[in-house]
Amino acid sequence: MTTVEDALLTRRSCRAFLPTPVPRAEVERLLALAARSASNSNCQPWQVHVLTGAAKRALAEDLLRAHDAGRREAGEFDYQPCTDRWPEPFRSRRRGFGEGLYRDALGIPAGDSARRLEHHRRNYDFFGAPVGMILTVSRKPLLGALVDAGLFLQALMLAARGAGLHTCAQASLIDFHPVLRRHVSVPDDQVIVCGVALGLADDGHRLGAHRTAREPVSSFASFYGSEVGALT
Ligand SMILES: Cc1cc2nc3c(=O)[nH]c(=O)nc-3n(C[C@H](O)[C@H](O)[C@H](O)COP(=O)(O)O)c2cc1C
């Protein structure tokens, strides 16, 4: 039995999956669990498109073709505008994440943009996962729907851990949203939030040991009131 704490501590963005299929009933069970998430006034604005087998392969082929041809499009909304002008501390954290993944875990130095791109390209095959999902939400009201989508996404990732599976959220897919829209039926009143890869982790892959750091609670939490004393 996985505890919530175990699921939180063992969830990571998995970027190397085994091809072992995940039964459809299991994917449906995980989605039903994720749908228990809170949402503003219980509006449940999420939609999920699940691709496996030939459907996933066809999408991946088209995404890789579009990627290789440089047909990146402005996103439906911009996740990461002007990353080179991000304020601190986000800029340093982003750099630290990149160094941890590319230099330390994959052994690709900063100057080797060809090999870095080759790794990034694997997003478009869902890192080899047998299940590729596309998460969309209602365009109106967008901000609230995006908060709700985040809760759904986290719940899905934790539910996957409860089943011994791993996930990776993938905003990189929306760079090719016209391709996604050709493969799945997304109504005009929905925006594509991200992709999600789902499957069994390939623990033998060199990325299997890659973990990201977190800032301490004292860096982001402020406590007010004196009813409960500080732990010593
Ligand atoms: C909404 C969202 C989109 C993301 N998009 C990508 C992506 O396109 N490709 C990727 O490799 N990782 C992606 N990630 C994973 C983040 O890089 C990762 O969550 C972060 O570095 C923390 O690492 P961890 O998930 O292993 O704890 C995304 C995460 C989120 C929440």
UniProtKB/TrEMBL annotation:
Q: What are the top taxonomic ranks of the organism? A: Bacteria, Bacillati, Actinomycetota, Actinomycetes, Pseudonocardiales
List each copy of the Nitroreductase domain by range. Answer: 9-199
Task: Extract the coiled-coil ranges from the record.
Answer: none
Q: What is this protein called?
A: Nitroreductase
Family per similarity comment: Belongs to the nitroreductase family.
Look up the signal peptide feature and give its range.
none
The alphabetical list of record keywords is: Flavoprotein, FMN, Oxidoreductase
Q: Which domain of life is it from?
A: Bacteria
Question: Which cofactors does this gene product need?
Answer: FMN
For this protein, the record's Pfam families field holds: Nitroreductase
